[in-house]
Amino acid sequence: MTERPAPRPPLDPARLAAPLGWRVELLDATPSTNAYVAERARAGEEPGLVVVTEHQTAGRGRLDRAWETPARSSLTFSVLLRPDVAPTSWPWLPLLTGYAVQAALADRLPDIALKWPNDVLVDAASGPGRKVCGILVERIEAERGPMAVVGVGINVDQTLDELPVALATSVALETGEPVERTGLLGQVLGSLHGLLGLLDDTEALRRAYADVCVTLGRTVDVHLPGDVVRRGEALDIDATGALVVGTGDGTFTVAAGDVVHVRPA
């Protein structure tokens, strides 16, 4: 019989250190923080809104994959931004978000790394790794111009039985210690807020991202629309944030697609 986890404490808004200019709202439950924030954006909400939920009941990941976690076991939030950068820099926002999460968790998880374009993994240097965080960024056409909804889901306190897939993990499982979610949320928000300036220098962002991206140098299967799969070696991140993949026939770039790390033979 599986032992039930101890009651999990709620987030404490009174102790949350929110970045300057950002407004944090806490919901007990919502189907999707991204959908909620997108609706607020279309209704005229200003950038800087952060919505955190204790229980997301119908979340979506990349490629419309379902994503749900037990109440109070994760950090699930969305941030509304209006990046004041050229349109060519917008595709960097998911990568920057992953880099910010990686930087915020690196002191707890020394082997944390990034899988292109926006998964955060641990123990992925040679194997497939275990996913601790997923990111979904959506562009919203609002009355005063385009905005970005940056959705982040971090597995914080799940037990092994509570994780949705075999290759997932949580911060608590990796550290073997309880995790105080309020402090961790403030740390992640501060990292994202502090690193947004890298959108003005995407070459510096490209170098920083590449340094902690375990996709580079790996054999990958790239799943493209139409059930097309192309295998090659992940060589680089180009100036637009796309993945450069080398094959026997040359190279190709992937701006969007599902990339799978191929296990070494």
Order of helices and strands: EHEEEEHEEEEHHHEEEEE
Outline the biggest β-sheet. 7 strands, mixed
The gross shape turns out to be: globular
What is the rounded distance between the termini?
Answer: 37 Å
Task: Kindly provide the radius of gyration, computed on alpha-carbon positions and rounded to a whole number of angstroms.
Answer: 18 Å
Poorly predicted ranges: none
What is the arithmetic mean of pLDDT? Answer: 92
Number of strands: 14
Number of helices: 5
How much beta, percentage-wise?
25-35%
Task: Give me the secondary-structure category.
Answer: alpha+beta
Q: Which strand order do you get reading across the main beta sheet?
A: 1-2-5-9-8-7-6
Percent of residues in helices comes to 10-25%
Briefly, what is this?
The chain is α+β, with helices and mostly antiparallel strands.
